[in-house]
Write a structure and sequence with these properties.
This protein is mainly alpha-helical. Helices cover 66% and strands 3% of the residues. The protein has 7 helices and 2 strands; from the N terminus they run βαβαααααα. A two-stranded antiparallel sheet has the order 1-2. Helix 3 packs antiparallel against helix 6 (149-168).
Length: 178
């Protein structure tokens, strides 16, 4: 990948340390030999890019048509998905992917769940949730720094019941009973 453009370039047989000798009018070398891809192909011969693009479109559609209650549910689900990705990356020793996934989970907690609390109107419950979210953020940081899967498990044990309760009251909220 070229740092200037962020795009992949073909590696050629005549690549040398002299940039001028390997450049052609289109910026790519002549006689392509290999190309590096961002994602390995799946067992079905296609990259996972299609699935990721489809998932992004689904999330964008959900967000655009979601109620305030549904948006919080999406944040909880996104948190759980990020933890799952972080755990897999941790086990595979994929440091960058682990950091990105834990960072996403932390942003969901800090910028979504915690920032959405109304501490004035929410009283003691909002204060307790704020303290819980601060603790979860700390444990996510520790999980990232120490490659501590048990810290990720603890975060799931803390957030999971909140998500489950939030989902359970969804039908009552949508019906206007809460």
């Amino acid at each position: 990948m070229t740092p200037q453009t962020g795009q992949f370039r073909f590696k050629t047989d005549d690549d040398t340390s002299d940039n001028k000798s390997r450049r052609t009018h289109n910026g790519l070398g002549s006689r392509p030999r290999t190309m590096f891809t961002a994602a390995p192909p799946s067992a079905f011969g296609r990259s996972h890019g299609f699935a990721n693009a489809y998932a992004r479109v689904g999330v964008e559609t959900s967000v655009n048509s979601a109620s305030a209650h549904k948006l919080i549910e999406l944040l909880f689900n996104g948190f759980m998905d990020a933890i799952t990705l972080a755990r897999g990356a941790m086990r595979a020793k994929q440091i960058e992917a682990k950091g990105n996934a834990i960072g996403r989970a932390a942003r969901i907690v800090e910028e979504g769940l915690k920032a959405g609390l109304n501490l004035e109107a929410g009283g003691r419950l909002a204060e307790d949730l704020s303290a819980l979210y601060a603790y979860v953020s700390l444990r996510l940081l520790q999980a990232n720094l120490r490659n501590d899967e048990s810290a990720l498990d603890e975060c799931v044990r803390l957030i999971g019941p909140l998500r489950d309760a939030w989902v359970a009251i969804g039908p009552q909220v949508e019906a206007g009973n809460l």
